[in-house]
Design a protein that fits this description.
heterodimer, A: mainly beta, seven-stranded mixed β-sheet, 11 strands, 0% helix, globular, B: mainly beta
Chain lengths: 119, 110
């Protein structure tokens, strides 16, 4: 099946630094990628929708200047957490939909997540 | 957008028994629903989906039931195994994106 890879799988950084997380579709081209955040014992909360070649659409309450999303190619989207603080510590998960996915969100493929810990 | 549940209850079942995990959704316009399984430290794994023109759909050892009248979804797992222990989320489609429910922790006792 289709594979979505995230890197790094975990990262620890100091408060005030920026961290970049990559999401790659390994065997298909993804026109749309989604970024989620998940705190412990909670559900996945959609942060933003990323379309290749255009600006990301952020969900209400998500700071676009803090969570920079770039979707420069059909196989790569990046999420940069700028000036990270301890409250940004979370599990960040991406998902991707292929070109032939149409409107069927069942063809979304999820990455394995990236755990960010900000000290 | 509307949310799909806010709490994370726990369901404990004996190995071999059937499990029923429930989910209430709030957007009556949603027409597509999915159940995911998430193991600790991993991304969600697709289990089964159902469209709103159906009431029931069966997979291997799993069945999803949809009651649009009361906006309720359930996931039934037959002969629950220790490997089924995980967090289970329902999700509903809202246009191009998925909205996840709060999730249920399933613990299987041997």
């Amino acid at each position: 099946g289709a594979v979505v890879s995230q890197h790094p799988s975990w990262v620890i950084c100091k408060s005030g630094t920026s961290v970049k997380i990559e999401c790659r579709s390994l065997d298909f081209q993804a026109t749309t990628m989604f970024w989620y955040r998940q705190f412990p014992k909670q559900s996945l909360m959609l942060m933003a929708t990323s379309n290749e070649g255009s600006k990301a659409t952020y969900e209400q309450g998500v700071e676009k200047d803090k969570f920079l999303i770039n979707h420069a190619s059909l196989t790569l989207s990046t999420l940069t957490v700028t000036s990270a603080h301890p409250e940004d510590s979370s599990f960040y998960i991406c998902s991707a939909r292929g070109l032939s996915g149409g409107g069927n969100t069942g063809e979304l493929f999820f990455g394995e997540g990236s755990r960010l810990t900000v000290l | 957008g509307e949310s799909v549940g806010l709490h994370l209850p726990t369901l404990s079942v004996q190995e071999g028994d059937n499990s029923i995990i429930n989910c209430a959704y709030s957007n009556s316009a949603s027409d597509y629903f999915i159940w995911y399984k998430q193991e600790s430290g991993k991304g969600p794994q697709f289990i089964i989906d159902i469209r709103s023109n159906m009431d029931k759909r069966q997979g291997q050892r799993v069945t999803v039931l949809l009651n649009k009248t009361v906006k309720h979804l359930s996931l039934q797992i037959a002969a629950t195994q220790p490997g089924d222990s995980a967090v289970y989320f329902c999700a509903e489609s809202e246009g191009n994106k998925l909205v996840f429910g709060a999730g249920t922790i399933l613990r299987v006792k041997s």
